[in-house]
Write a structure and sequence with these properties.
Glutathione-S-Trfase_C_sf, transferase, 10 helices, Glutathione S-transferase Yfyf (Class Pi), Chain A, domain 2, mainly alpha, 4 strands
Length: 349
C-alpha cells in the first residue's frame, strides 16, 4: 500500500504464515528543508506529492497539505486505488500517465534516483519535478516538515498542527497510536498465526479503550486544537468499519459501536480538510482487491452505509477550537475534489 504496506514485488504477498506482521520501516530519509542544507530546498512549484486516496498514510499528507493551504506550493499526483506487485499506477489520468511527471508508474520516479531500488514503491512520496526523481517517502517526517519547513507558503490562518510547546506530548501520543492502532490493524490483518492475531487484537482494542478514556473529557488528542496527532488517528478510524473491522478481523466492535471514538471521528470528518479528502470507494477497492491472500475472490463489499458520518456528534460541548487562532481551509481545488459518488459529503450540499 503506502508507508504501511511494503509491496512484495515477488508475488504481491502480505501475510507471512506462522508469524507476526513486521513492517519494513526503512524509508528514503531525505528531507526538504527551508535552509536547503539537505540539498533539497523548499521551493514552491518544484515538488509533486504522489498519493493514493486509498492509503491512510498518504491520506495524512493530503489532509495536512489542505489544512496548511499548500496546494499551490506543492502539486499532487493521485494514483489509482489498486496496484500490482510492480508499483502504483496513474491510471486515473488520461492515457494512464501523470500529466506533470509524465510517468505511468510511481516506480519510475524511484528508479530515476535509485536504479534497481529494491524496497517498497510506496505512497506518499515527494518527487522532484525537474529531475523526475523521488526525494522522500518517509511519510511520518514528511507531514511534520510540511508544518515546520514550509511555513513561508502556509495560507493565512493556517493552524499550528505541530506547535513547539506540545511537540513532546504529540510525539508520545503518536508513538503509541502508531504502534498499537495505525500499525495495530495491520498486525491483526496480516497475522500469520492465531497467536499473533490474538496478541495484536488485544493490543489494538486495549489502546482504543485508552483513547476512549483520553477523549471522553477533551475534544482533541493533545491540547484544545487539532494537531498532527488527530490527523494520524483519524485516517485509521475512518477506515475502521469499511475495511479493518471485517477484512482485518478487528471485530470486537465497529467504530459505530464505540460512542466516544465514533463521535470524535465524526467531529473530524465534518471539519473542512478531513472528510472532504476521504474516498471510501478507493479505500474499499484497494484493500479488498489487492490483498488477494486475505480476500482471494477480490469481491468488494457494498457496505457500510455512510450517511451516518454526517449525523450530529455533540463534541462541541467539550470546548476546543478546531483551528486555534486560525481559520478553516478553503474548499479543495476542483481537480482535487473527491468524486461525490464516493463520499457522503454530497448529502451536506
Amino acid at each position: 500500500m503506502g508507508g504501511d504496506e511494503i509491496l512484495d514485488r515477488t508475488g504481491g504477498k502480505y501475510v507471512e504464515p506462522g508469524g507476526e506482521f513486521t513492517r519494513d520501516q526503512r524509508y528514503i530519509a531525505t528531507r526538504i528543508t527551508a535552509d536547503g542544507s539537505s540539498g533539497w530546498p523548499v521551493e514552491a512549484g518544484r515538488y509533486r506529492l504522489a498519493v493514493s486516496r486509498a492509503c491512510p498514510w498518504a491520506n495524512r499528507l493530503i489532509i495536512v497539505r489542505r489544512l496548511l493551504g499548500l496546494e499551490d506550493a506543492i502539486s499532487m499526483a493521485v494514483a489509482g486505488p489498486t496496484h500490482d506487485k510492480r508499483s502504483w499506477t496513474f491510471d486515473l489520468d488520461p492515457g494512464g500517465r501523470d500529466p506533470v511527471l509524465g510517468i505511468e508508474r510511481l516506480a519510475d520516479a524511484y528508479f530515476a534516483r535509485f536504479p534497481g531500488y529494491e524496497r517498497g514503491i510506496t505512497v506518499p512520496a515527494i518527487v522532484d519535478v525537474p529531475t523526475g526523481q523521488v526525494v522522500t517517502n518517509d511519510y511520518a517526517q514528511m507531514s511534520l516538515d510540511l508544518s515546520t519547513e514550509w511555513t513561508a507558503y502556509h495560507r493565512p490562518g493556517a493552524p499550528q498542527l505541530y506547535p513547539e510547546r506540545l511537540r513532546d506530548e504529540i510525539d508520545e501520543v503518536n508513538a503509541v497510536v502508531f504502534a498499537d492502532v495505525n500499525n495495530g490493524v495491520y498486525r491483526c490483518g496480516f497475522a500469520g498465526s492465531q497467536e499473533a492475531y490474538e496478541k495484536a487484537y488485544h493490543r489494538l482494542f486495549d489502546r482504543l479503550d485508552w483513547l476512549t478514556e483520553r477523549l471522553t473529557g477533551q475534544r482533541y488528542l493533545v491540547g484544545d486544537t487539532i494537531t498532527e496527532a488527530d490527523v494520524r488517528l483519524f485516517t485509521t478510524l475512518v477506515r475502521f468499519d469499511p475495511v479493518y473491522h471485517g477484512h482485518f478481523k478487528c471485530n470486537r466492535q465497529k467504530l459505530t459501536e464505540m460512542p466516544v471514538l465514533w463521535a470524535y471521528a465524526r467531529d473530524l470528518f465534518q471539519t473542512p480538510g478531513f472528510g472532504d479528502t476521504v474516498d471510501f470507494d478507493h479505500i474499499k477497492r484497494h484493500y479488498y482487491e489487492v490483498h488477494r491472500d486475505i480476500n482471494p475472490t477480490g469481491v468488494v463489499p457494498l457496505g457500510p452505509d455512510l450517511a451516518n458520518w454526517l449525523t450530529p456528534h455533540g463534541r462541541e460541548q467539550l470546548g476546543g477550537r478546531p483551528f486555534g487562532d486560525g481559520t478553516p481551509p478553503q474548499p479543495a481545488p476542483p481537480a482535487e475534489r473527491v468524486d461525490p459518488e464516493h463520499t457522503p459529503l454530497r448529502d451536506a450540499d
